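Input chain follows. Return structure tokens only.
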Amino acid sequence: MTAQAIKLPKLWMPYPVRVNPYLRALHDETETWAREMGMLDGGEAPSARRAIWTLSQFHAMAVDQLTAWALPDASLTDLRLNHRFNLWALAWDDYFAATFKQTGDLAGAHAFTARLHAFLPSEQGARLPEPANAVERGMAYLQQRLFPPRLAHWRKGLNRALARYIDAGVQELANSRAGRVPDLIEYAQFRRESFAAYTAPYSVELSTGARIPEQIRHSRTVRSLLEAFMDYMGLANDIASYEREVHDEHDVNNLVIVLQTSLGITVQEAMHAAADLVTARLRHFDHLTRSELPPVVRRAGLDHGERIELEAWLRGARSFLSGLHGWYTGAPRYAPADGPFPEQRTSTAVVPACAQL
């Protein structure tokens, strides 16, 4: 079955897309930082810096829309910071794919990743190496800004999540080189790392200014809620990016391929099974927030202010998921060469006209 013959199923999304009012400001400045970091081709005389994207590739990613949809309540300052964080994550992904996955250079990938770890210190004030490429330059910039006083508690956790993200790239390359399709149970956990999903709670907190109250943060219900929240991101991405990853990059690290291999079914059947699994994880997230979390809140004795803060965080998490969904189903980055995905459109969440790509 060719990529063009595969019908991409609709993904259920019960939360409406909301758009940050600073989208236009973000769009107007979106190229500036990427050029400064060397990620974007300047369109001038050849440079010693190796750019990751051409201008057309850059705009096809629509990262400004992704950020404004996922973080509708963020201030312009916080929106700008998360936008640059998103750009860095995509820059790492595309640089790693072009430099190491397409060449099969596992030794080079190990060396690149080991060096990048030096840009993820666990302690404040650690001296960073001199950046040698756009990915390192972008991370050096972000390390100076990601942890203002109100988010200082994130330093170790966020950098640990980023370390898992870049390490997962090496494991993906090793799997592809060996032709090893991951086991289904193994892959579900691994995808949280390879999608950088462990960084998403930071983005929600950055956007909303709200934290999950400490009294319930480590409860079974909240842990399950966070796992379902993170699982939707990477597993839904596997459906949207199937053609790009499997047919263009020859990657085996994709939920559709994992299901096809594990269950011995066709690609089309695996695509629908993947959609069912993604929907199940989102339904579980929704069920936990509506049915299981309220009793936990009551037993913990959260006061009015703590309940308001929790609801603000949950509202931000829902917006984060609906924003990702809107991006997956609308950004040219995920559209096949012959046009947009007609079958994969938002079922209940309508993308506002002002945010159309």
